[in-house]
Every structure is written in structure tokens, then in C-alpha cells.
Amino acid sequence: MQSRDEIFATLRDALVELFELDAAQISLDANLYEDLEIDSIDAVDLIDHIKRQTGKKIAAEEFKAVRSVGDVVEAVYRLVNAPAA
Fold first, then answer.
1. Which superfamily, per CATH, for 4-80?
2. Residue 27, CA distances (Å) to 11, 21, 23, 48 in order
3. How many Å apart are CA 54 and CA 47, to the nearest integer?
4. In angstroms, how far is CA 31 from the centroid of its own chain?
5. Rounded to an integer, what distance in angstroms lies between the CA atom of residue 13 and that of residue 65?
6. Angstrom distances, CA of residue 84 to CA of 15, 38, 58, 79, 81
7. Which end is more exposed in the chain, N or C (fewer Cβ atoms within 10 Å of the end residue's Cβ)?
8. pLDDT tens digits, 45-64
9. In the predicted model, is pLDDT for residue 17 greater than 90?
10. Direct distance between the N- and C-terminal alpha carbons of the chain, in angstroms, rounded to an integer
11. Are 47 and 38 in contact (CB under 8 A)?
């Protein structure tokens, strides 16, 4: 089980690594598209990276509602802490 803080730290590291962002720019309130300039292609790369890290796939429908870094943390938190089916 991962906490939201652990997910945020992992996500921040991924954003720095994948998109060469400054870690100081990345906060829970940062908007992926406006503040961090993540485009739709980058979002697909991010979803793929999350899948490799967690072993679980985020549904594209769920990711459409994501706007901020905090939204991504919450989506991943629900994904990794969901009861096993």
C-alpha cells in the first residue's frame, strides 16, 4: 500500500525524468496542461509510466477528468489501493 505522499514523490520524480520539468514547479495544485505544459501525447506517456510502475492500468476515461497533479495522485491512490477482484 502506498500513501498519497509516496505517490506524489514518485509522480514528481517521473515528471522531472520524463518531461525535464523543474521539481520546484510540481505541486499538488499544479495544472498538468497549463502550469506544466503537458500535452495529450505526454499524458499518454505518463499513463504508460504509471502502468509500468504500478503494474496496473489507469482507464483512459478516468484520466480524462485529471487536471492537476493532485488529481493524478488521487487516481493512482485509488488504483493501487483498490481491493483485489
1. ACP-like (1.10.1200.10)
2. 10, 12, 8, 21
3. 11
4. 11
5. 22
6. 28, 31, 15, 10, 9
7. C
8. 998 998 898 888 887 777 78
9. yes
10. 16
11. no
Residues facing residue 78 across a β-bridge: none
Sign of the four-CA dihedral 44, 49, 55, 58: negative
56 CB neighbour count, 10 Å cutoff = 11
Q: How many CB atoms lie within 10 A of CB 48?
A: 13
pLDDT tens-digit readout, 29-46 = 999 999 999 998 998 899
Residue 84 has pLDDT above 80, yes or no: no
Query: Hunting for cell 502550469 — which residue is that?
Result: 35
**Looking at residues 16-34, what average pLDDT do you find?**
96
**Residue type, position 64, single letter:** K
